[in-house]
Specification:
Blueprint lengths: L1 H5 L3 E2 L2 H21 L5 E6 L3 H16 L3 E2 L8 E6 L4 H12 L1 H7 L4 E6 L5 H10 L5 E3 L7 H11 L3 E3 L6 E2 L12 E5 L1 E2 L10 H5 L3 E2 L2 H13 L4 E5 L14 H9 L6 E5 L8 H9 L6 E3 L7 H7 L5 H14 L4 E8 L6 H14 L3 E6 L17 H24 L5 E9 L5 E4 L5 E4 L9 E9 L3 E6 L1
Parallel strand pairs: 1-8, 2-3, 2-4, 4-5, 5-6, 6-7, 9-12, 12-13, 14-15, 15-16, 19-21
Antiparallel strand pairs: 10-11, 17-18, 17-20, 18-19, 20-21
Helix pairs in contact: 2-7, 10-11, 11-13, 14-15
Bound molecules: S-adenosyl-L-homocysteine (SAH), iron/sulfur cluster (SF4) and FE3-S4 cluster.
Length: 471
């Protein structure tokens, strides 16, 4: 991918990665004298799967520095929040959770508190942390994640707060240690950043420009995961359909190559952007037996004027045409989507176009959000006359429409048998798994099934979740 080096995206050099490995060793030594019994780290990630994948790299680096990971915040010697900025609610929650750490820090002055992720790429948030949360030790942005060992070393040596936030097009850091949360489901980032600037969205500002990892690096990572026994691999990017843009390599080709890796596993991917979703990609999905017949294709609005104001780059008609084609080549396809209710200036009639799209599309499930104004985005400048209460009513109306659609979809699965990845035991003491189409199914079975595929016959549908029996 020579194109990548031609623009301003930096690939972190192997020397830099090696330097960070050396810092990690220094930190490990210092921690050994400070915590002879071992230091513990608590990591919490907010937001999307891309952020979760970052969190797994952060955990990998912390483990390489000698920390053991704990789920108990009270016993931790280091607490790290990997933040999200997508909606105001995500930010408010973060401030609440950081504020609550003040008491812990008082009781344990050596506790180190770290904040990173998308919110820390926003000036207003960093200023607030600087001023109002003096007990936070290290703050770093999304482009310097690989420097965590160096930042921690600096803080350990000087005791001073570290703020490392750079505003750049973005970097690609390969070969960082990873601590994966699951032993059978894996996140595999294939690209970072976003160039689309949908008018409501903060991601392009906090994640930098779109950049694709080298296909060989991605394929090699997939191969390793399969070798280690991973059964479910999700390829991640904000817009995977534009993977490799500007080169002669595209996402369909990547899918085919990963599909060619020997082994029993399922390939998933998200998120697909309708403007870059091609019939070539849908044909490839249909032809690749390991690719789950599940498409997460956010549409955001069913009204053409609103779509245009959102800068989405497609129309309602184009979206429905894509779905038609997708269902034609994959009759069993399960489609899920994201939608925003109450975009600035959206009228009730325009909102009804969203409802009618939902009635037509046959989504299995949908993530519905009320518009949240994000500082710095274009939509934040637009007049927004509809009240929050009114938007709440529209939101409920949309949920009802989707509930009907989901009911039709999952009811049609009763009596059929699906190959399910068993993921754990749920609160009813049943095995919980997911179909290829990402529908949750519960059934009686032994814990030995966890992490394996099982054939399960659907006996009952409860709209969002299925009940079944093991064959
Ligand atoms: N890259 C993906 C979306 C990532 S963000 C895509 O383009 O489809 C996940 C979802 O959050 C979006 O699909 C959108 O529905 C929602 N979202 C993003 N910004 C939002 C905002 N300002 N207010 C409400 N919802 C938002
Ligand atoms: Fe945000 Fe649009 Fe990029 Fe998705 S494609 S991350 S919604 S700007
Ligand atoms: Fe949130 Fe950043 Fe993801 S803003 S949704 S964590 S890219």
């Amino acid at each position: 991918m020579s194109q990548l080096s031609e623009n301003r995206i930096k690939t972190v050099s192997p020397q830099e990665i090696e330097k960070q490995r050396e810092y990690a060793e220094l930190v490990a030594e210092m921690l050994m004298s400070e915590y002879p019994e071992g230091a513990k780290a608590f990591v919490h990630t907010y937001g999307c799967q891309g952020n979760v994948a970052d969190g797994e790299r952060i955990e990998g680096m912390l483990v390489s520095m000698g920390y053991s990971l704990t789920g108990d915040v009270n016993s931790a010697d280091l607490i790290l929040f990997n933040t999200c900025a997508i909606r105001e609610h995500a930010e408010d929650r973060l401030y609440g959770n950081v504020g609550a750490l003040k008491v812990l820090k008082k009781a344990k002055p050596n506790l180190r508190i770290l904040l990173c992720g998308c919110m820390m790429q926003q000036k207003h948030a960093v200023e607030k942390i600087k001023k109002s949360y003096p007990f936070v030790n290290i703050v770093f942005g999304t482009h310097v994640l690989h420097k965590l060992p160096e930042m921690l070393y600096r803080n350990l040596c000087t005791g001073k707060r570290v703020f490392e936030i750079t505003d750049e097009p973005g970097v690609i850091a390969e070969n960082l240690p990873v601590h994966r949360d699951s032993s059978f489901k894996a996140w595999l980032p294939i690209m970072y950043g976003c160039n689309n600037f949908c008018s409501y969205c903060v991601v392009p500002y906090v994640r930098g420009r779109e950049r694709s990892r080298d296909p060989q690096a991605v394929i090699e990572e997939a191969r390793c995961l399969v070798k280690q026994g991973y059964k479910d691999i999700t390829l991640l990017g904000q817009n995977v359909n534009s993977y490799g843009k500007g080169t002669d390599y595209n996402f369909a080709r990547l899918l085919r190559e990963i599909n060619g890796i020997e082994g029993d596993f399922v390939i998933r991917f998200m998120t697909s952007h309708p403007k870059d979703c091609t019939t070539e990609l849908l044909d490839t999905m249909a032809q690749c037996e390991k690719v789950a017949k599940h498409l997460h294709l956010p549409f955001q609005s069913g009204n053409n004027r609103v779509l245009k104001e959102m800068n989405r780059g497609y129309t309602r008609e184009k979206y429905l045409e894509l779905l038609d084609y997708a269902y034609k080549v994959m009759p069993d396809l399960s489609v899920t989507a994201d939608v925003i209710v109450g975009f600035p200036g959206e009228t009730y009639d325009e909102f009804l176009d969203t409802v009618s799209l939902v009635e037509k599309a046959g989504f299995t499930s949908m993530y519905t959000f009320i518009f949240s104004s994000r500082p710095g985005t274009k939509a934040a400048q637009m007049p927004d006359p509809v009240s929050r209460e009114e938007k709440g009513r529209w939101f409920n109306e949309l949920l009802q429409a989707q509930e009907k659609a989901a009911d039709i979809r999952t009811s049609s699965m009763v009596g059929r048998t699906f190959r399910v990845l068993c993921e754990g035991i749920n609160k009813n003491g049943l095995i919980e798994g997911r179909t290829q189409g990402n529908v949750i199914i519960e059934f009686p079975g032994s814990t030995g099934l966890i992490g394996t595929f099982a054939n399960v016959k659907v006996t009952e549908s409860l709209i969002w979740i299925l009940k079944g029996e093991l064959l």
